[in-house]
Amino acid sequence: MEAVFSNLMLGFANALTLTNLVWVVIGSFLGTLVGMLPGVGPATGIAILIPVSYGMDPTTALITMCAIYYGAMFGGSIASIMINTPGDASSIVTCFDGFRMAQQGRAGAALATSAIASFIGGMIACVMVVILAGPAASLALKFGPAEMFALILFAMTAAITLAEGKLLRGCVSLFIGLLVASIGIDGQSGVIRYTMGIAAMQDGIDFLVAIIGAYAISEVFNSFAEKDVVYNIDTKAIGKVMITMEDWRKIRLPIVRSTPIAFFLGCLPGIGGSMTSLIAYTTERQLSKNPENFGKGDIVGVAAPEAANNASATASIIPMLAIGIPSSGTTAVMLGALMMLGVQPGPMLFEMRPEIAWGVIASMFIGNIVLVFMNMPMVPYIAKLLALPQKLLIPIIICLAFMGTYMMNYSAFDFFFLIMFGLLGYSMQKLDIPIPPLVLALILGDTLEKTFRQAMVAKSGSLTVFLDKPIALGFIGLAAVSILYSLYQSRKASAKAQETEA
Amino acid sequence: MKDLKFVFAAVVTMASLVTNASAKDWVPESTIEIVAPASPGGGWDLTARAVQRTLTEEKLVNKNIIVSNKPGGGGATGWTYLKGKAGNPHYLAANSSLVLLNNLLGSSELTYKDFTPIAMLTTEWISVAVKADSPYKTGKDLLEALKKDPGLLTIGVGPSLGNNDHLSFVRVAQKFGVDTSKLKWVVFEGAGGDVVMAALGGHVGLVTTALSETLTQHKAGKLRILGITADKRVDVLPDVPTWKEQGVDMVFPHWRGIMGPPEMTAEQIKFWDDAIGKMVQKPGFKKTIESLNGQVYYKNSAEFKKFLEEQTAALGPLVEQLGLRKK
User: Fold this and answer.
1) DSSP secondary structure letters along A155-201
2) Residues B172, B85 within the same domain
3) Residue B284: which of B55, B90, B1, B112 has the closest Cα?
């Protein structure tokens, strides 16, 4: 433990120079800006920095990248809360309650909650990295295809059960998502599926395009269709920025609870912030005394996913540092940049270049602290943007949605998907079909299928492969329980409804 | 003596003036764009950026150079963009064996013939590795076992069948007499990371992937590399034998290079041959490539073109035979 402490101090000594602090501030600011644009996530933000980082000392480069990473996460949440458009995949869940809060005139509180929850989640996760990096990395190695499949299955059932009493509708949404996720070249066999001969569809439909469509564009359609316009926000209330003591009492436990779950999920390769934040959200909803408030502007519905996505972003550093393998797109870019700077990542990094490894961890602490101090004062100004008249706000949203879509693949073909998913999202809202299962299926459907088939190869296609894997069996069991529990609940609810009718 | 120097300088100056005036040498007239047909951080991107950096720092090109990322379609998106710049030598793109494999596999109409090969720049070698506690100590052990029972072990590869990692091991196994149609392939999404994770966790029996992915794990004693596709042992791993040494006569580079749009003139090709020929000599370039675990493996435009022709002839039948070609 003492050795850990002195190593961490070495990291801080390396990270806390004036130059580095200046870069942290620049990085946080840039990251927040980049994160706010839908479709442009932290990976792009860091990639933009790569050419600038050539002249830098490796520690400075790393610390700036961490700052961009965290900044982009916060920026993504801003977009979710303000315009119901996730800036990146990990802030999708923040839309559910964040945007509703904004509509109720509590944008300031939602933004502040996001900043605070991210800060606490990030800090706890940093401490956990210091203490648990080794064990967490070996846990991550235990997750092979079979375990991964079972975990995703569990996450998907959790998403279906979100829409309480609408199990069937949840399934419909999930299956649409899975169907869309299967478009493109199949990785295992190389067969091209459902592309209708269109070359642009060979890589499948980018899930972010679908998500921006289903959330942002569908809101635009909504605002055209409805008389009581969607973006009509109680402008008088916007001024009230900070969260109240009562809010704090509500969110403190969920933040602390969400962090460890997200931390362990974040260590696993291929599990992004979107899934961890969703699992944190569903867990909190199940623990809540008023689960019916979720999705209608419950502050806990912002706090839990925000703490979770920062914790998982922090944890995703572990495989990169401890094993030398990036577990997310963003860490992959960071790894590439590190190699350009002559740092050889791998299992030996902690021994060979402790100043780098611990420097990364120290810079995550610093990035978190700087961000919260930078962002809290910005909150009221950001929140005021919502006071813009609707005729300005809607064109801005359309413009951002199209820009973000184009920037993902530089393909104008994606605009069709954007609009199609806008229509789909709008119809689903009208038909009272929940959107979250669709979103999760879009993000993870591909991995679900791949991991299932990877697991199958070993036993030449026999399902018994899951029987000798306790972790996988455990998650499949949890999935079954969560479906059964929600069936039981909806039966109870309908029995109650009949009683009251009678 | 002093006079002589002066005369010499004068002659040189005049000679250079004369050549400048007489030959129709082409030099860039505007900003150069190097297309990386992938997302930032990948091999193509890092290669393109290494080229950009060296050409700029060493002042081999007197115009601005930018790198643009155009990911999608296994390179097709970026290369289609390049093809659209026919005859404009200010556009270049990073490439690799995918430029011919995509076509052989039937997933793209584009092939190297649609472009002007400029240079092969770097290569990585491909390694076959097992977990450190595996009973197989040498490449031969492993191949013997697979010869007896091809379905004995699962083989991790990524991101798709028909790539270098896959084809190189098929060739090794074929040459050893393994029934390659019965091998159990597990395809992972990420080319290196996911595959190595699966090997470290014991979720696959062996992996075939870039040496750079397995190198540090081998050195840390977590994985054991049994063979590499190089022509001779590599400096960073003197203890690991090549396949050639183990009786399988096969060398398989995983190369990266750079190409231009179609319809470039001889003068334009010459400019790039000169600039890039000088670039690969620079220690800065070499250092960057080595820090990315590659090695400089230069072929000029003519040699590169010939290599592409030979590779197409060698890999085409193999892909057919494996049933990987999409109709």
Assistant:
1) HHHHHHHHSTT-HHHHHHHHHHHHHHHT-EE-TTT--EES-TT-GGG
2) no
3) B55
Phi/psi at A412 (nearest 5 deg)? -70, -15
Which residues of chain B neighbour A319 with C-beta distances below 8 Å?
197
Q: Across the interface, do B291 and A339 touch by the CB < 8 Å criterion?
A: yes
The predicted-structure confidence for B24-56, as pLDDT tens digits, reads as follows: 689 999 999 999 998 776 788 889 999 999 999
ipTM for this prediction: 0.75
Say whether residue B201 is in contact with chain A using an 8 A CB cutoff: yes
C-beta atoms of B41 and A458 within 8 A: no
Interchain CB contact of A190 with B (< 8 Å): yes
Residue A168: other Cβ atoms inside 10 A: 12
Query: In Å, how far are A128, A279, A350 from A312, measured between CA atoms?
Result: 11, 12, 21
What domain count does chain B have?
2
Give per-residue pLDDT as tens, A254-276.
999 999 989 988 888 777 788 88
- The Cα A475–Cα A144 span in angstroms is 13
Residue B174's Cβ-count burial label (10 Å; 0-12, 13-18, 19+) is middle
Q: How many domains does chain A have?
A: 1
Segments forming the whole domain that contains residue A246: 2-501
Range of the domain at B117: 28-123+253-321
Closest Cα of chain B to A306: distance in Å?
Answer: 26
* B269 shares its domain with B179: no
Does B107 sit within 8 Å of A190, measured CB to CB?
yes
Q: Look up residue A57 and give its two tokens.
A: 């000392």
Q: Answer yes or no: do A50 and B202 touch at CB < 8 A.
A: no
pTM confidence score = 0.79
Cβ distance A145 to B159 less than 8 Å, yes or no, reads no
